[in-house]
Design a protein that fits this description.
Keywords: Amino-acid biosynthesis, Hydrolase, Magnesium, Metal-binding, Serine biosynthesis. With 266 residues, this protein is α/β, with parallel strands linked by helices. 43% of the residues lie in helices and 16% in strands. The chain has a domain of 158 residues: 3-Layer(aba) Sandwich (Rossmann fold), CATH 3.40.50. The N and C termini lie far apart (55 Å).
Amino acid sequence: MILGKTGCEKGGNSFITPRSFAAGETTTTGSTILRKFPKRMASLMEIKEIFCNADAVCFDVDSTVIKEEGIDELAKFCGVGDAVAEMTRRAMGGSVTFKAALTARLGLIRPSWEQVQKLISDHPPHLTPGIRELVSRLHQRGVQVFLISGGFQSIVEHVASQLNIPTANVFANRLKFYFNGEYAGFDETQLTAESGGKGKVIAHLKEQFSFKNVVMIGDGATDMEACPPADCFIGFGGNVIRKQVKEKAKWYITHFDELLKELEER
């Protein structure tokens, strides 16, 4: 039997009901809404203008807000780091979907609730230099900050707490556990579990809050693909440089101080 209702994740000493969407909303948010935002290449000047007038800024987490890749750290902690890394390399060369790749890697790791909690307590993720100051400055300007990750909710919520970001602004994948704490899968209904999930989350946010200027910041191709519906994308290479992103991003930075400086000059 799975903890609480199907799809619940054990968080701390309580049960957390995962973020849910109304019947059919995934399809609406994932396809119909996305078509409302025409694809358009913004210039560097336009991207900077959008950033400085943003209603919301969305950050990827792994290798962007934090230095590590969460699933790799979890795999190493559970003793299957090399095997999962090899699986990731093979998956990147094929046409496997994000959900299929996540299913396969988690099936190999099979983390228990206790292992996840111990990873967070004994080996907490390290914040990327400058992110704390940037998020604080955005909050001072009244900008909503969201964390959108293909990683795991429990780890991302820990990161959010370090940055004073409310858990309601966290979108990530939820692990499921049986009552004895053993791994029971992950919540496949989450938008972040799907290919193109980050864009679907942003489309949902724009629909829900009527944001006019939404910025996506991240290191990877999945972050870049979230624009549109994001109004602009800023590539980040402070931890890992992805060649494709560096070449295609109109605004590519390697330190968050570059964004702080842009805000201070306005």
